């Protein structure tokens, strides 16, 4: 499953797949180089350019003509074959494959009348063959499909975990709501009972309002599942802001008082 490790091995590395003087694989900003190649910084700049302006692929025997900064390292990368492995959908991190070819310099010593001179003609690399280009395309396609299947399996696992979590939250919310209904019902009965001291009545009111708020929170947990399924229905309702603010103060009044803070609603 680790293409970086598999294609940079000694026996069957990336460079051996194509007749080249150097090769590199770029994955998640890391360069895995084989043979003679430009520096990591130069390769990453080339990858960024080709990905942005050349649709992620390039095939040339004169790289400086396509990417002018490549003139600085044409001694190791005059020719370049590059392809981006991507399925266009599932793969989050693209895998970029590059092969390089050097110019070839041949030394010749020739007589010239009474002296000798040496010339070093530069021979450009041979064009990338159609067989090579097709093989590279098949390799990139195979990697992309493998990654797509692997990520799809991982996505299925994540989806199953999310469904388990949602089911757990739904079950818990139902389990908690049952005793909460009992707490709210008993507090309401006590509130309507005669001869209840005012201080006790206020405490019962806080219990009832807190229970109602918690029930609303549990209902929201269930509504989140509806939202994910696209079944959420929004409702516009009127709210008494003063009463709502008063309820909030009553809920936290004990904590506020213990801290020596005075809450005032105007």
TrEMBL record:
<dbReference type="GO" id="GO:0000155">
    <property type="term" value="F:phosphorelay sensor kinase activity"/>
</dbReference>
<dbReference type="Pfam" id="PF00512">
    <property type="entry name" value="HisKA"/>
</dbReference>
<feature type="domain" description="Signal transduction histidine kinase dimerisation/phosphoacceptor">
    <location>
        <begin position="164"/>
        <end position="230"/>
    </location>
</feature>
<dbReference type="InterPro" id="IPR036097">
    <property type="entry name" value="HisK_dim/P_sf"/>
</dbReference>
<dbReference type="Pfam" id="PF00360">
    <property type="entry name" value="PHY"/>
</dbReference>
<dbReference type="InterPro" id="IPR013515">
    <property type="entry name" value="Phytochrome_cen-reg"/>
</dbReference>
<keyword id="KW-0597">Phosphoprotein</keyword>
<dbReference type="InterPro" id="IPR043150">
    <property type="entry name" value="Phytochrome_PHY_sf"/>
</dbReference>
<dbReference type="GO" id="GO:0006355">
    <property type="term" value="P:regulation of DNA-templated transcription"/>
</dbReference>
<protein>
    <recommendedName>
        <fullName>Signal transduction histidine kinase dimerisation/phosphoacceptor domain-containing protein</fullName>
    </recommendedName>
</protein>
<dbReference type="InterPro" id="IPR003661">
    <property type="entry name" value="HisK_dim/P_dom"/>
</dbReference>
<dbReference type="InterPro" id="IPR050956">
    <property type="entry name" value="2C_system_His_kinase"/>
</dbReference>
<dbReference type="GO" id="GO:0009584">
    <property type="term" value="P:detection of visible light"/>
</dbReference>
